[in-house]
Amino acid sequence: MPYALFCNDAQISKAYPSESDVWKLAHRSGLVVDVSADEDRPGPRRVLDNEYEIKPCRVAQGEDPAKNKAEAERQSRMELELNS
Known about the structure:
Layout: E1 3-7, E2 10-11, H1 19-28, E3 32-35, E4 45-48, E5 52-56, H2 65-83
């Protein structure tokens, strides 16, 4: 089942093969924040910034979640090389 990033119930990313792929995209985009422990969950944890969610989605006609993942990984590698 493909997943995407949503804000206020609107899909704002392409579809990706897994939820963990979208977490990686959100992290690279600066949308993941660390929160401190509370009474329900000990220790710090990472959550999406306000109003963002990762949910299952429909794949747009002609879209390929595996291709989207490969393109995102390629772009991430290029950014790392440029920043080195």
